[in-house]
Design goal:
CATH class of the largest domain in chain C: Alpha Beta
CATH superfamily of the largest domain in chain C: CO dehydrogenase flavoprotein, C-terminal domain
Strand content of chain B: 25-35%
Helix content of chain C: 25-40%
Strand order of the largest sheet of chain B: 3-7-1-14-11-12-13-24
Order of helices and strands of chain C: EHEHEEEHHHHHHEEEEEEEEEHHH
Largest sheet of chain B: 8 strands, mixed
Strand content of chain C: 15-25%
Distance between the termini of chain C: 45 Å
Helix content of chain B: 25-40%
CATH class of one domain in chain B: Alpha Beta
Shape of chain B: globular
Radius of gyration of chain B: 27 Å
CATH topology of the largest domain in chain C: Enolase-like, domain 1
Oligomer: heterotrimer
Number of strands of chain B: 33
Number of strands of chain C: 14
Distance between the termini of chain B: 70 Å
Structural class of chain B: alpha+beta
Strand order of the largest sheet of chain C: 4-5-10-6-7
Chains: A alpha+beta, B alpha+beta, C alpha+beta
Number of domains of chain C: 3
CATH architecture of one domain in chain B: Alpha-Beta Complex
Radius of gyration of chain C: 19 Å
Number of helices of chain B: 18
Largest interface: A-B, 53 and 58 residues
Shape of chain C: globular
Chain lengths: 154, 765, 296
């Protein structure tokens, strides 16, 4: 067992885990932050996307030990005091989800994308979010959400 | 007066889904919960000689080990053919053989490695044509002794479903034709690939003999029925609770993780047992779309009037039938397309093979037969040198036409869907060669889909004394927006703001019965039940108001949660009911809606059962670009029209249509199971590819609204037809672009390039 | 979900310790860099290491720095950083392009250069352009550091010349000569182009002042057990003016000299067809960039 210190959505958390534990397991099972999902386990679907020290990463491929002393942001950290952030609002208003299972990962990836490319072009949006799969096919509405967010026609 | 229906109301599940707080089946955690893992068959067909569990039983954390012999029950909807865990014999690679529950999932998975099973490998049936051979091994030699429904089987063969249909004189119809064409098409197996994997948590109480199962399914009552029938227990001993479902697409409609979790729970001493499938297991060992080989022969006059069609369809159920019997029967009949064809003949057979189980898939067989029908329509149009759109319109069903069983069709927006998609795609106008190695083309395809008929839905509406309205319906939110649409209809039916409407999760202990959330039936059937119960509850509230306030009931209205007299609000529902104080006053009403007996279904026997309470139509038009040197196809634009009756919520209708197009593109171009010897070898999203954002074309959703006299607020269904028309529209656009015709799905770049090379060689001769 | 099996885990703070631990662990030892391959292999059971040595706490292994006669890229440099590095983009276009189509952006933010090389996948996106750019790997071992051209590292699928305990620490990327141009193209299952390569082609050409080809390199992915130089095709180009016919002849030769297998992703014949198309297109792009005068 090893002891980890993680700052999760701004709150320092100490947790003891086996070395074979992934960051996703720590979030979902150790910290009960079940917003982050697993759908493939091999980094192809993006349902488990989190920000690790600000960078989007599939948490199913991150060893928890490797994230020691890092900053972790998950979907649960997007809203503050119950107020949705602008990306969440845009997803609600445009209906940019259906079953919602990919939505946490999609929102986290969208947050990083919008931070790095506030004026993202349609091509940048599609590439930037290419690591998150949505089987319901909400992609068109996600582009609409980005129209709202960037003020640019997609 | 309607205030919510017809509007783009934001989804009622939006907030929980964008904040990560929505609870799905995978999120259910209970104190003391054990975790399951499964040993699966490595062989397509084998006898189990022995199972040695000793080492596994001694492994750390292991609490329960169960085998098929230890839990020897059989389930199945149309044919009871499937064991919870393999009993003496395995019939496909991936079949569960032994299940283990341990304190942690890691311990369970490690213990599985310690199991030793000895098999005697048997000859296997690896494809459906082989299944038909006279000396083929029998996947279920005792099929004729199984409990099953009334459909026809062929004993002592692998044919588990035989269905024939005739109308008129098909030979005379061919004789009357100027052109008769005969083609063969194949549609491949596909994974539903819902992002939430199959999962279940089951608990068994020895004292009462009762199970509680937390499931992720689109049909809790039907699964309960399968479980109680298999185990021989009454319905109150099997309680199913459904949270949010992370996608289904027809895949979460039979016992998959549930059967394993229940078997483990039985021996877990009261501890809940959780079973979650890995993506690999989800891809290779759950169920897939039913593959089909379709021979279709069509007669047509020189001026493009269809005279006759015969079809011979071979479906592959895999090792067990799951829900495929209905697919093979209902799905087959739509191979005649949405067209008036006088003379028809159909033979559909479904066979067992030693392959992964197949099952219903968004469209219930229509995605497969639409592929054949609509590809051939364009092949005929090319032969006759007539325009594919005009050809379809010439034969397309119109309001009042007779369906193939003589039902008079009602609510037919087909022609409008054809006209509006072809307008939107700019039919007839293509920039053919934007670069030397690129070719562009446009294609169209249309489809027809019935809904399961007759089925029923119950609804209980409960108005609390603070004005909150609980709508109890067993309609789990699988992603298609049913909670929102039902809440909109409930708000208008009762006369309250949508914010006061709640749709609690489904729990078979409390929710009234509903048919499955399938067949695009929810809006129509549950909506009608809500409309009925909602009107009733409104009347009861107004009667109470009349009594309390001393008005004549006739002059009272319930608008937006307010009791209104001649345009003036006199009190609110909360004010009225809350006024009863400690005595309390809750108002309830219930309704059952069934389509049985509707005059719209009238048709002569014996085929009256083929009538559908509503018909769905969708037309997709595609513009694409082919790289003639690599075979890579890029979809540029899709115009997708669907006759929805009336859109309760245009936004959720668009979600279904747009999502269906994406799924159709993914199905047609990328998705394919690969492997050999009955083994699927690409059980990972790294090798089984789904369409992602960069594959997204411009999609123009077009909502066509036809009138339907018995629909709730005019609404039909929308979910299923959305994915079926895209693949043949792509194939037809490929033909338009480069003159190639591929008849077997998928349309991979490799096949496209080969076909281009063959066409070039042919032209060169 | 698939759980990882138990393993011993180390986070050495310096390279000597890492070499020591990996040497001691023998066949069961694995170095962890980005984890995008190793963790996947551990989940699927393709690999069951008994010892995992995380290299990320070792200072000095990450980043792109100017070096004598070229640039040095630390083995732990993320693929995303290679894609965006101006030192790479100026003069090593094939590598920058290849980095830009390796999986999705989040995976590129995790995956490392050293990991991609060490994994020795026949479908590697980065090995072909590194070979085109004549990159040299620096390897730390019990016997001290040594340099090996990237081209010579690969011996088979997942196999390299690295011995137990060897760690790739950096890659030296020599400056490109004047009138050099390069390109990287690949095709996967989806048209969108970031999937595992069915075929990948990196090409680089050096032109003389008159525009003739002085030297060319063509390296193919996913058509052989290792990344493969199309040597005969390169010879076709030597000394000739890069006319359409010449480039096509080279492409045809490359298609002729590769002997791919049929697997889950594509048939052998389709791969051969793609090699021909992508080689021609990559050569055209490489020649165009060489002519454009920018060092690319």
């Amino acid at each position: 067992m090893i002891e980890l210190l993680l700052t999760v959505n701004g709150t320092p958390r100490t947790i003891e885990v086996e070395v074979r534990t992934t960051l996703l397991e720590v979030l979902r099972e150790g910290l009960l932050l079940t917003g982050t999902k697993e759908a493939c386990g091999v980094g192809e679907c993006g349902s488990c996307m989190i920000l690790l020290d600000g960078e989007p990463m599939p948490s199913c491929l991150v060893l928890a030990a490797d994230a020691d002393r890092c900053n972790v942001e998950t979907v649960e950290g997007l809203a503050s005091d119950g107020v949705l952030d602008e990306i969440q609002r845009a997803f609600v208003d445009t209906g940019a989800f259906q079953c919602g299972f990919c939505t946490p990962g999609m929102l986290v990836a969208a947050k990083a994308l919008l931070r790095d490319h506030p004026d993202a072009t349609p091509g940048e949006i599609k590439q930037g979010l290419s690591g998150v799969l949505c089987r319901c096919g909400s992609y068109t509405k996600i582009m609409k959400a980005f129209e709202v967010l960037t003020g640019r026609k997609t | 007066m309607t205030t919510h229906v017809g509007r783009r109301v934001p989804r009622v599940d939006a907030r929980e889904k964008v904040t990560g707080t929505a609870v799905y089946g995978v999120d259910v955690r209970l104190p003391g919960m054990l975790h399951g893992a499964t040993l699966r068959s490595p062989y397509p067909h084998a006898r189990i000689i022995s199972i040695d569990t000793k080492a596994a039983a001694a492994a750390p954390g292991v609490e329960v080990i169960v085998t098929g012999r230890g839990f020897p029950f059989i389930f199945g909807s149309a044919i009871k053919d499937q064991p919870f865990l393999a009993i003496d014999r395995v019939r496909y690679v991936g079949e569960p053989v032994v299940a283990i529950a341990a304190r942690t999932e890691a311990q369970a998975q490690e213990a599985v490695d310690l199991l030793k099973v000895e098999y005697e490998v048997l000859p296997a049936v690896l494809d459906p044509l082989q299944a038909l051979e006279v000396d083929a091994p029998l996947v279920h030699p005792d099929m004729h002794t199984y409990d099953r429904g009334p459909h026809e089987i062929v004993p002592n063969t692998n044919i588990n479903t035989l269905w024939t249909f005739e109308r008129g004189d098909v030979q005379a119809g061919f004789a009357a034709a100027d052109l008769v064409v005969e083609d063969e098409f194949t549609a491949h197996a596909l994974s539903h690939a819902a992002l939430e994997p199959h999962v279940a948590v089951a608990r068994y109480e020895a004292a009462t003999g009762a199970y509680t199962v937390w499931v992720s399914t689109d049909r809790p009552f039907q699964l309960r029925g399968e479980l109680t029938a298999a185990l021989g227990i009454p319905s109150d001993k099997m309680r199913l609770i459904v949270a949010n479902v992370g996608g289904s697409f027809g895949g979460k409609n039979t016992l998959i993780a549930e059967s394993i979790a229940v078997a483990l729970a039985r021996y877990a001493g009261g501890a809940p047992v959780r079973v979650e499938f890995s993506r690999e297991d989800d891809l290779v060992a759950t169920q897939t779309r039913v593959p089909a080989i379709m021979k279709i022969k069509t007669g047509v006059t020189n001026d493009g009037i269809l005279t006759a069609r015969s079809a011979d369809i071979l479906w592959d159920s895999g090792a067990y039938t799951s829900n495929t019997v209905g697919v093979a029967i209902r799905g087959s009949s739509t191979i005649f397309g949405p067209y008036r064809i006088p003379d028809l003949a159909l033979v559909a057979r479904q066979v067992y093979t030693n392959r992964a189980i197949t099952g219903s898939y968004r469209g219930y067989g229509t995605t497969q037969v639409t592929w054949a029908c609509e590809s051939q329509m364009d092949m005929i149009a090319a032969r006759l040198e007539i325009d594919p759109v005009a050809f379809r319109i010439r034969n397309a069903y119109e309001e009042g036409d007779s369906y193939i069983n003589e039902q008079i069709m009602h609510g037919v927006g087909l022609r409008e869907s054809l006209e509006r998609t072809s307008d939107e795609i700019g039919w007839g106008d293509v920039d053919r060669r934007p670069a030397p190695h690129l070719r562009r083309g446009k294609g169209i395809a249309t489809m027809i889909k019935p809904t399961a008929t007759p089925t029923s839905s119950n609804c209980v509406i409960k108005v609390e004394d603070d004005g909150r309205v609980s709508v109890l319906v067993a309609a789990p939110e699988i992603g298609s927006g049913q909670a929102t649409v039902l809440a909109q209809m409930a708000a208008d039916a009762v006369g309250v703001p949508i914010e006061s409407v709640v749709i609690p999760p489904t729990d078979t202990a409390f929710s009234p019965f509903n048919g499955p959330v399938a067949s695009s039936r929810t809006t129509y059937h549950v909506g009608n039940a809500i409309r009925m119960a909602g009107g009733d509850v409104r009347e009861k509230i107004l009667a109470t108001a009349a009594e309390v306030l001393g008005f004549e009931p006739e002059i009272l209205e319930l608008v937006d949660g307010k009791i209104v007299v001649e345009g003036e609000s006199v009190t609110t529902v909360a004010g009225l009911l809350g006024g009863f104080g400690f005595e309390g006053h809750s108002v309830t009403a219930e309704a059952r809606f069934t389509t049985r007996g509707s005059p719209l279904l009238k048709a002569p026997p014996p085929y009256d059962w083929m009538s559908s309470i509503f018909w769905m139509f969708a037309t997709h038009a595609v513009e694409l670009e082919v790289d003639t040197e690599t075979g890579v196809v890029r979809i540029i634009k899709v115009a997708a029209a669907q006759d929805v009756g009336r859109a309760i919520n245009p936004m959720t209708c668009e979600q279904q249509i747009e999502g269906g197009v994406v799924m159709g593109i993914s199905n047609a171009l990328f998705e394919e199971f690969k492997g050999s010897g009955g083994r699927i070898e690409n059980g990972s999203f790294a090798e089984y590819k789904l369409a992602a954002m960069p594959d997204l074309p411009e999609i123009i959703p077009i909502i066509v609204e036809s009138d339907h006299s018995e629909a709730p607020f005019g609404a039909k269904g929308v979910g299923e037809p959305a994915a079926a028309a895209t693949p043949p529209a792509i194939a037809n656009a490929l033909y338009d672009a480069v003159g190639i015709r591929i008849t077997d799905l998928p349309l991979t770049a490799e096949k496209v390039l080969e076909a281009i090379a063959e066409a070039a060689a042919r032209d060169g001769e | 979900m698939k759980r990882l099996r138990e393993f011993a885990y180390f986070e050495p703070a310096d390279l000597d310790d890492a070499v020591e631990i990996l040497s001691g662990a023998g066949q069961g030892g694995r170095a962890l860099a980005g984890g995008t391959d190793l963790v996947v292999d551990m989940k699927t059971g393709r690999m069951r290491p008994t010892t995992v040595v995380n290299l990320k706490r070792i200072p000095g292994l990450e980043g792109v720095q100017p070096a004598d006669g070229g640039s040095r890229i630390g083995a732990l440099t993320k693929v995303a950083a290679i894609e965006s590095s101006s030192l790479v983009r100026d003069g090593h276009r094939a590598l920058a392009k290849a980095a830009g189509v390796l999986a999705s952006p989040p995976v590129r933010g995790m995956a490392t250069l050293g990991g991609n090389i060490g994994r020795a996948s026949p479908a590697s996106d980065l090995a072909p352009p590194l070979i085109v750019h004549r990159a040299v790997a620096t390897i730390e071992s019990r016997n001290g550091p040594r340099d090996e051209p990237v081209e010579g590292l690969f011996t088979g699928p997942g196999a390299t010349t690295l011995a137990t305990g060897d760690i790739i620490t950096s890659i030296f990327l020599p400056d490109s000569p004047p009138r050099f141009g390069s390109a990287h193209l690949k095709i996967g299952t989806r048209g969108s182009g970031t999937d595992i390569a069915m075929v990948g082609v990196s090409a680089g050409v050096i032109l003389d002042a008159a525009g003739g080809i002085v030297d060319a390199r063509i390296v193919l992915a996913s058509v052989a057990p290792t990344p493969m130089r199309a040597l005969k095709a390169e010879q076709v180009l030597a000394g000739l003016a890069p006319s359409d016919e010449v480039l096509e002849a080279a492409a045809e030769t490359a298609a002729g000299e590769c002997q791919p297998i049929t697997d889950l992703r594509a048939s052998a014949s389709h791969r051969v067809a793609l090699v021909r198309v992508l080689t021609r297109r990559a050569l055209i792009e490489a020649v165009d960039t060489a002519r454009s005068g920018e060092a690319a």
